[in-house]
Amino acid sequence: MFAKKQNIQKDELLNKISQEEVMFQYLGIWPSLTQRYKSPFRTDSSAGCRFEWKNGLLCFVDNAGFNGKLYWSIFDIVKHVKSCSYREALEHIAKGRYTTVASQPVYKPQKRITFTYKTWDEDNLFKLSSEILQSENVFLVDTYWITKEGGVSMIKPSDLCIAYYFKSKHVKLYFPTREENKWYSNCTNEDIFGLDNLNQNGDLLIISKSQKDRLTLKYHFGYNNVIAVQNEGCYIPENIIEDLKLRFEQIVVIFDNDETGLEQSKKISKKYGIDNWVIDSQFKDPYEIFINNEQLIFK
């Protein structure tokens, strides 16, 4: 496909190969934009991952953010599987044997989520007023629409559906009563809960693992400056964490006190050189502690 000594360029390569076939070769999965998959990178008990086109690249979206990454292009996947550099990944892909032409179309739009909402009941999941929840861009969904290749789907959920809205216009839908498929979103690791609601500077900043824990820490336990990542597997972009270090005297990460939470909080603590506080309780997170009228204690 390419001369042995040729300097391979990404755009030229994408015009000559099928991204679907590369995915199949390295993941053993033929991509479908309508199906859900278990992650091939980790032990996964439920099928919540998907394929999505993003800026001309077919991406495997790992819903737990394996290695701190949500979107995995063919280049990311080959680098991981082969333990190689980006340039070496280009070479591996170029050497592959493919039966179809380049993926068409080269660009497919990212899915879009829109919704209408209704008034919160006083006794809601968060135990917060409707005014506070709306100020935090947390909405009780009445109907939502998903726009992607092939058309628009309108869904009126029969169970509790909550929308977290970001200024990027990304949306994360949360279905708290479901056992599986509890989340659906088009968010990235740059969509950080509470980032725009922080004080300009302060003594303490807490990083939590969910918007529900963040709201609990802020409004029920009195911690003024709290942000939350999309999930425990997500890392905060370096430029954002460096800015926060300049603004706050101490930054701590507080995740669940179960095995996954403890492991991931240690990784984030080490990566960014920040403190890690462990919840000392039979309950795993701040929300459960609040609901059970327990004190929030760290060790």
Task: Name some characteristics of this structure.
4-stranded parallel β-sheet, 3 domains, single chain, 13 strands, 299 residues, 9 helices, alpha+beta, 6-stranded antiparallel β-sheet, Dna Topoisomerase Vi A Subunit, Chain: A, domain 2, disordered N terminus
Give an overview in words.
This protein has 299 residues and is of the alpha+beta class. It has three domains: 10-95; 112-185, no CATH class; 195-291, Dna Topoisomerase Vi A Subunit, Chain: A, domain 2, CATH 3.40.1360.10. Helix content is 26%, strand content 21%. The protein is built from nine helices and 13 strands. The protein has helices at 10-14, 19-27, 74-82, 86-95, 130-135, 211-219, 238-247, 259-272, 286-291; strands at 50-54, 57-61, 71-72, 112-118, 138-148, 151-155, 162-165, 171-174, 183-185, 202-208, 226-228, 248-253, 275-276. The strands form three sheets. Strands 4, 5, 6, 7, 8 and 9 form a six-stranded antiparallel β-sheet that branches. Strands 11-10-12-13 form a four-stranded parallel β-sheet. α2 runs parallel beside α3 and α3 packs across α4 (86-95). It is globular. The relative contact order is 0.10.
Q: What portion of the residues fall into strands of 2 or more residues?
A: 15-25%
Total strands: 13
Low-pLDDT parts are 1-5, 101-109
Report how far apart the termini are.
58 Å
Structural class: alpha+beta
SSE arrangement, N to C? HHEEEHHEHEEEEEEHEHEHEH
Helix content range: 25-40%
CATH fold name of the largest domain, please? Dna Topoisomerase Vi A Subunit, Chain: A, domain 2
Q: What count of helical segments does DSSP give?
A: 9
